[in-house]
Every structure is written in structure tokens, then in C-alpha cells.
Amino acid sequence: MLEINAGGMYYRDLNQKIRDAVNSGEKDITVRNVNGQYYIGDGLRGKSTITVEGVPGNDLAAFMDGPTLVIKANAQDNISNTMNTGKVVIHGNAGDVLGYGMRGGKLHILGDVGYRVGIHMKGVKKQSPTIVVGGTAGDFFGEYMAGGVLILLGLNNDGRPIVGDYLGTGMHGGVIYVRGEIDKNNCGAEVGILDLDDEDMKVLKESLTEYCKDMGLSLDEIMKKGFKKLIPVSLRPYGNLYAY
Amino acid sequence: MFKSLAPPEYLATIDREKCIRCKRCIQNCGWGVYSWGGDKVLINTSKCVKCLRCYHYCPEEAIEIVDNPTRFKQNAYWGYNHLRNIKRQAETGGIPLTGMGSDLPYTILFDSLLIDACQVTNPSIDPLREPMELRTYLGKKPSSVEFEKGRDGKLKLKTKMPPQLKLSLPIIFSPMSFGSISLNAQKVLAIAAKECGILMNTGEGGLHEDLFPYRDNIIVQVASGRFGVNPDYLNAGVAVEIKIGQGAKPGIGGHLPGEKIPLEVARARMIPVGTDAISPAPQHDIYSIEDLRQLIYAIKEATNYKPVSVKIAAVHNVAAIASGIVRAGADIVYLDGFRGGTGAAPSIIRDHLGIPIEHAIAAVDDRLRQEGIRNEASIIAAGGIRSSADAAKAIALGADAVAIATAALITMGCTTCGKCYTGNCSWGITTQRPELTARLDPEVYAERLINLIHAWEHELKEILGALGINAIESLRGNRERLRGVGLDTQILDILGVKPAGR
């Protein structure tokens, strides 16, 4: 195991240190005293696990392709931007624009998230991205979604709405599972609200089993409440927009 | 079925005396204008777009395509396209699409600018006998340089130079994605770029593996759809370009319909076959210059600090935006003017939004100079560069290099018919239909494109020679060597150019 003390370190130097460690074959890295450094795990490849102590800055795990990042605190904006494979676990809340254009891997967040989470996520072949949010989400959750799975649990919401407006606006692929009821008025015109079938339950349970293990939560407890499924009504939401 | 009330634009006619019924017109037309009627070729002229493929491949010169004389009554205010679009919209309720750059008769400033030449007092240079330097480096330049003495006593550069893209001449190919154009068309660009020592740009459709051998001559693009973007892709070329906007459709997104996403396109874009490829209008991780800076440096971190270009459409506030882009850390600002081409755009957007590239170059160059940051980034100007003269004028106005797309496609057979969005291009350029793309032999057509670039290279050298300067560097931003003809005071002021005769 390698420890890196990030205290007072410029992000470029810190990320170079992490990259060097991963490239030299280090599989288990702990970065201590992180305080807002940007781009941790940016474009990083390999199979290492990197534990971050402290709050990392924006663009965590952007373009990442393989490693696992475990954040022991809150995290900020733009996490897993265009991430290809790998995993990010956040034991706290996270900010806006998470998983933008994400093509694979997993993003697990224990707490609440901000606006525009899961925008334009897409899957291809066996690669399919999954985001699980334990708490609540802001507006534009799953906007332009083209593939993958978004799961919103709404735990500990203290009566607050679990999701904002424009849910799934422009969605043309993938699936969103929300624990609890969804108001059609919060949704984009392109989505339909359905009950889960057996295949959905299989996908959901598989994802949540891993999530619960990461977060130390009880799957049975979470599954006590029912889920709704959101899928696009049309794979071609804008098919009739043009005159040729 | 309800017959369209918009009369056909063109009449395809066959001289029956000359026709030998070889059916080549039927094979060659990607639009389905011709069919076999048992004893003669039948014509459905409403499908004709005047791309002239049939004309070129008719061995008997029996085909003639004429503008339909039975079009709407001529009207100086209500033009043909106004009537046609209204009728089409009345029939479909849709937005009329178009391809190419705008062809509307707005003032073309390139055609109102003339280049200086030497007479008597300052000798011109003959580029056939004397060296003429067109080499161009794109990227940040340091504001000062320091030298030190090496061990061998020779002076060497002490200042660490930011990464530079080396071009043999200041012309590159504009981004055109695999999907909007065929893979063969991309190969033509890649082969020519390599041969000419310049660059091509993948556009936002990912990078097909057939282009890997050309990686030293490729810029990879990242747009809002993030198609085909992963760490390998970001590192696959010599630079990365963030696409914010396009001159033909500033402020709106892209949309490649599912039926134009066959297996190969889907693979390069890393999306399932047959799904729509939607590029949202904004990149939702960029709402400010600060956000842009964040993405620029996210890319630099992922690529060990390769140069990053930011492409924007030329809009009213382009100078301030460009200043922000430079301050956000971009190495290159790519300006795409109002006349810039497109594979598909709503014609209402293409024809009415944005500003011409000539204004934009002058405004951006001025602004960056005033702010003392002109050296921080190179400017690429694009959007309707039709000739080496346009290129020279753009460079004299302040661009470091120009990018061409339509001109390159014309070497592949394009006749600017503007129907790229239909995916039926009979020349195999803007289509994915295998029987059509197979017509575009990359080696054969690359030769033609290489010829064009070499011809423009010679012309640029002749222009420099006439100006009495021996390096493109001396023309860059040298507006004193331009004069305006028939331009009003205000435009001359914006361009920073004197009127002819002064």
C-alpha cells in the first residue's frame, strides 16, 4: 500500500504522483489530506484502488478507464465526466453534472446530488454505466439519457421531494429507477412511467447489492419501498422534427 | 398520396436520340431519379438535386439537367426558397433542413478586399527561385524567450516552449465526422494531410481504426455528445479540439438520425446501432469560461498536456468570447464563420445566425492584441474559404491558419448541391450507403486533394512574392497590405483596413 500526502500540493503534481504510482504497478493507494485538488483520477487507467481522504475537487475521475476511487467525504462537481470504465464510491453528498456522457463503470453516491446528474449517459455492447444515488437529486436528472442505468433511492429525504423537475427530458435510451412515486408533472415529455418487471428487478437488485455492500446499507430495508421505472416513449424523440 | 405543391427544382432530361440505354445513369444516381421502364430510362425529376453524377457518367452526353423553368413566378421579395419552404412546411409541419454553407447573397467581404503588390521601390520576390516560408506553428507562444550557452559554447533556447503543431503551410482540414461524411472521405483527408504535412480533424464522431496510421496528422474532437471519447481517443492525435459551436448552426446541437448509424459508424461513436446520435446544443458541463477552463485542463491532464483547441461559431460577441477562451487556457481558438459548411442544419438557422468570418477574425485579433494575449493562442479561421486568396486575406486580417472543408470535398466530386443531410450523396461523400461510398477510392481522390493543396501552396507563395515578403509570418495580421473596395467607413474601421487609393 502506498500513501500520498496531498496536503498543500498543486493538483498537477498530485495527479502526476498518482499516475506514476499506478504506472509502477501500485494496486492500493491512499491519498491523505486532499483539499479540493482537481482532476484526481483524470484519464487514469489500470485496476488500482485509490482511497481519497478529504474533499476532492471538480472533475474527479474524468475520462477514467478502470481504477476504483473511494472518497471518504463529500465530493464536488463533474464527477465521472465521460468515464469509460471503473468505479467511484462517494461516502457523502456530491455536486452537479455527475456522470456526463459516461459510457461505463459505476458511480455510487451515499447522499444527495445536485442538478444535471446522468446527462447523456450512454451504453454500448456490454459496457453500460450505472449511477446509484442514495439521497435526493436536483433538476434535469437523466437528461438526454441514451443508455445505462440511473437509480435514485431518496433515502433520508426528510419529506423533501426526492427529485427535481425535467426528469428524463430528451431521454432516448437507458432506464431510470426511482424508489417511490413519480409525479408525471416533474418528467420530460419523452418519458413514460412504468412498473418494474422481473428483468428490471434483476438489474436493480444486482446493482443495489453491490451498492449496499459499498455503503454498509441493508438491501432488504431499501427494497421495502416500491420502485417506478422511467423509459423513453420513443427511441426517436425528434423523428418528425424535420422536413426533407 | 398528396402531391407536393412545391415544383421540382431541376428537370433531368435525356436526349433519346443519343441514349444507348446503358443504364449507367440508373446505377450512378443515389437519389432514385432514373429507373428502367422495359425499353427506356424513366425519369422522376422531382428527386433530382443537380449533383451531376449522371451527367459525368453518361458515355453519350445525353443527359442535361436544367433549372426548372416552371418554377414559381419570379419575385424579388418572395424568393423561390421562401415559397418552397412554406409549401414544404405546410405539407409536413417540419423544419426544412439543408447542407453546406449559406448561399444567400449577403455581402462577401473577401470579395471587397484586395491585396497589395510591389512596384519599383520595393522589389517583389520570385518564389520559383527564392525560398519562401509557409511553415506555421500553431500553439501558445511565450511572451519572451531566453537563451543560454550550452557546454559546446553554442546558444540554445532556455525558455521551455509550449507544445506546437507544425504545419507545412497554413491550411488544415476542418472537422467532419465519420457519420456526416463517409469513412472513405475521411481517408482522403487523412492521406492528403499526411502527404502535405498538415492536419485533418475527426469531427465529433470518434476515430475509426483505419485512421490510426495517420495519428500524427489528426486532431481529435470532443463535442457535447462525447461520441467515441475515451483516454485512448484523446491521446490518438496530436491535439484535442473542444467543439462549442459551428458556423452553419451556432447555438444549436447536432442530430445524426438512427437510420444513418450503421455498424461502423456506431462502433466509432461507441453507441448502439440505429439509435439517434444527439449532441445537445450546449455541453452541459460548460456554462461559463471557468467551466470551459475546467474541461480544457481535464483534457490536458488526460493527455499529458497536448495542445487544446476550442472551436466556436463566429457570433456577435465573438471577440469577448475568444478572449475568455484564451484566458481559459486554450492553445488554439478556432473561429467558424457564418458561411461555414454543415452536413445538416435547419436552413433557417444556417441562413440567419452568426457573423461572417472576415469580421470575426479582425475583431478577435484586435481584442487579443489590445489585451496583450495574442501570443497566448493561435487563431484558425474557417467558414467559406474558397481559394488561396481568401486564405491570404484571412491571414492578413489576423488568422494564423485557415481550415477548409467544402473546398476539399469539391475535389472529391462534390458539386455543392447542398443535400448532404439526405445521406444519398451520389459521389460517396456524405453517405453511408456502401454502394455509394465504394465509389470514392481514397488513394485516387487523395491525389486530387493533394494537387489542390499544392496548387494553393504555389499561389500563396506567388502572393507573398508579389508582396515582396518571403515568409507567411510577415503577412500574419498585416492589414496594411489589404485595401477595401466599396466598403463603408465603419466596416473599414472594424476590419482595420484602409480604402483602396488611400
Plain-language structure description:
- The complex is a heterodimer of chains A (about 240) and B (about 500).
- With about 240 residues, chain A is α/β, with parallel strands linked by helices.
- Chain A has a domain at about 75-230: 3 Solenoid (Pectate Lyase C-like).
- In chain A, about 15% of the residues lie in helices and about 25% in strands.
- Chain A has an eleven-stranded mixed β-sheet, sandwiched between helices.
- Chain A is globular.
- The model of chain A has no long low-confidence stretch (mean pLDDT about 95).
- Chain B has about 500 residues and is an alpha/beta fold.
- Chain B has two domains: about 10-95, Alpha-Beta Plaits; about 135-500, Aldolase class I (TIM Barrel, Alpha-Beta Barrel), CATH 3.20.20.70.
- In chain B, about 30% of the residues lie in helices and about 15% in strands.
- Chain B has helices at about 25-30, 55, 80-90, 185-195, 230-235, 265-270, 290-300, 320-325, 345-350, 355-370, 390-395, 405-410, 435, 440-465, 490-495; strands at about 10-15, 35, 40-45, 65, 95-100, 115, 135-140, 145-150, 155, 165, 170-175, 200, 220, 240-245, 255, 275-280, 310-315, 330-335, 345, 380, 400-405, 480-485, 500.
- Chain B has an eight-stranded parallel β-sheet. A three-stranded mixed β-sheet of chain B has the order 6-22-23, with helices on one face. A two-stranded antiparallel ribbon of chain B has the order 1-4.
- In chain B, strand 2 (about 35) and strand 3 form a beta hairpin.
- In chain B, helix 4 (about 185-195) packs across helix 14 (about 440-465), helix 8 (about 320-325) packs across helix 10 and helix 11 (about 390-395) packs across helix 14 (about 440-465).
- The longest helix of chain B is centred in the C-terminal third of the chain and has 26 residues, at about 440-465.
- Chain B starts with 9 loop residues before the first strand and ends with a strand.
- The mean pLDDT of chain B is about 95.
- Strand 12 (about 240-245) of chain A pairs parallel with strand 5 of chain B, so a sheet runs across the interface.
